[in-house]
Structure formats: C-alpha cells, structure tokens
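Troubleshooting: if your tokenizer reports a length mismatch, compare your output against this known-good record of 289 residues.
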Amino acid sequence: MNVMNNVIIVNKESFEKKKAEFKKGGQSKIHILTDFDRTLTKAFSKGKKVPSFISKLRNGNYISKEYSEKANELYNKYHSIEISQNIDTKEKSAKMLEWWTSHYRLLVKSGLNREIIERAVDDMIKDKDITLREKAREFLKLLDEKNIPLVIISSSGLGNALTDFLEKQNSLFNNIHFIGNTLEFDEKGKFIGIKDNKIIHILNKNEAGLKDTTIYKQIKERKNILLLGDSLADLKMLEGADYLNFIKIGFFNYPDEENLEDFKKNFDIIITGDGGFDSINKLMKEILE
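Known-good structure output:
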C-alpha cells in the first residue's frame, strides 16, 4: 500500500497495470462514471457536513411550514432504515423507493417550482453549503477538452439542482451527461413529477439504465472506466456498465461512519481528509500524455 499525504494507493502493482491499460487504449477508450454529492463537491463546510439540496429544501423556509414538517416526518421514518446495517438490501431498496415516491408526491402537493429550486441553489452557493472540491473544475475542463464523456449518476432528490449548480460554476461542459432524478415542470414552472417516473436512490444506481440513454452510444466502445464515488453503494454504477478495465477512486469522507478497510477492499485509490482532485488530475495527465 502506498500512502502520499491524503491519497492511498491500495495496491501499487495492480494500479500501475490498470494505468498502463488506460494509457494503451488512449483517450478514445475512456469514460468517467461519477457520483455528485460529496464526490465532485466537498463533504464539509465550516467544519460541518454539507447539507444535500433536498435537506436544504426540507429544513428551510422555501415552501411552507406544513411541507417541512411532513418532509421531516418522512426523513425520521426512513433515514434510520437507509443507514441500518441489519436490514436486507432488497427490503431496504423497496423502502427507499417508498420514501422518495411519498416525498415527490408531497412536493407536487406543496407547490414546488423552478424558482424555489433556483433560490435554494443560490443560497447554498452563497452560504458555501456546496462547493466543488479543489481542482475539480480543472478535472471537468480537461475531460471536456479531450472529448471524454463524464456521466454523473446521482441519487440526489433534486437532480435539476445539480445541473443548475454546475452551470452557475461555469462547469456544465458539453461532455457532461446526467442520469438521475430529473424533475419535470408544467408550462408555468410548477413541479409535476419525475421524468419517466424513474426514481433513483442510493441503492439502485445499477438500475439507472445506461443502455436506455442517449449517451450510451457514445460510451459503449469506451470500455476503460474511471469511477468516482464516496460510498460503497456508488460501486453499483459499474454494474450497468460494459468494461474492459476500471480504476475506482473513493473519497473517504466520514471515518466515524465508514470503514476504511472496506474501502481498501473495493477502491484502487482512496482520498481522505476531504481532499481535492490534484492526484486525479495528475493521473489523467499521465494516462493522456
């Protein structure tokens, strides 16, 4: 195991072999699969865990007191199931779908609209509740310059907020494709439901259906995959992918909640301490040189 500052290379020999295969295939054979929250963005701000977009909405004064109360009731009912280590994955997945179906119905009933989402995103940026990791924009820009597709598969409850945020950071490049909970609105900008009624949560990222998307034609022959995530659940993104080689990079954000040894068994590179993209950018430049 090789450790440099906050970067752990779990098996140097295996990693070097994978890197050589990526280099041999060249940029035309590479695509990126990544999570968004606390992967492209930092996990902490001002010493506290950053809130998700949906928690900002749930706990703020954006919709109504009644919405906040009912949304928090749902959170209190289902979050303990989400983090439980003692519930069968299939059962837990069904409960997550139940949770988000109920929450989206509540959002429709409560009058969520485009303006509310934009205001919440603006507030999160202003309050520094959400920031890109250091050098993450350089990573996104490099991929765009090299025409390497980057697919964000996110279980965020407000998928549109992610793309709004990237746009406001001048980082929504043409090579970026989003698979997640895309909110649909009527002609007046009122939220009416999730696109295709396809709800993605933390446990079903493998069901995101890459083969059903327009981006699939671009990536199906790009079988060297760099995967970025901040949880073991993010590894499910690979389950729907056809690949020859992969390099898995994990951001180890919460030592009190996550087991580093489990990360070492599943990721090739681990970035600790809410670190940035320096080592990832270095890796990409070595592969592409």
